[in-house]
């Protein structure tokens, strides 16, 4: 993360926004020597909010834990297993 003052952020704002959007770089902006703000790209912000919302949902967290345990136990299906199950269920043409 790059740290810069409010004055530097103001002077280079267009470049900072472009970099945040295209390279996923984050910029910490300081005011009077202390942290004041963080600039990050909109996609990164959206991902962060989505992650926070997911972490608030205990059912989703438990489903993730179950999935991890299943993978660790080797309870996985390859593409051919999935296709065969879908054909059997009538959800995929033969």
From TrEMBL:
Superkingdom, natural source = Bacteria
InterPro entries to which the protein is assigned, alphabetical: Antitoxin_Phd/YefM (IPR006442), phD/YefM_antitoxin (IPR051405), YefM-like_sf (IPR036165)
Q: Pfam families in the record, alphabetically? A: PhdYeFM_antitox (PF02604)
- Which family does this protein fall into? Belongs to the phD/YefM antitoxin family.
Q: Which NCBIfam families match?
A: phd_fam
Which PANTHER family did the record assign? Answer: ANTITOXIN YAFN-RELATED (PTHR33713), ANTITOXIN YEFM (PTHR33713:SF6)
Q: What does this protein do?
A: Antitoxin component of a type II toxin-antitoxin (TA) system.
Q: Give the protein's recorded name.
A: Antitoxin
Cite the source lineage: Bacteria, Bacillati, Actinomycetota, Actinomycetes, Micrococcales
């Amino acid at each position: 993360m790059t740290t810069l003052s409010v004055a530097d952020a103001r002077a280079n704002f267009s470049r900072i926004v472009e970099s945040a959007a295209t390279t996923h770089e984050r910029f910490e902006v300081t005011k009077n020597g202390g942290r004041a703000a963080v600039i990050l790209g909109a996609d990164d912000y959206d991902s962060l909010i989505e992650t926070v919302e997911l972490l608030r949902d205990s059912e989703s967290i438990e489903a993730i834990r179950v999935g991890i345990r299943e993978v660790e136990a080797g309870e996985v299906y390859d593409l051919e297993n999935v296709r065969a199950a879908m054909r059997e269920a009538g959800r995929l043409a033969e």
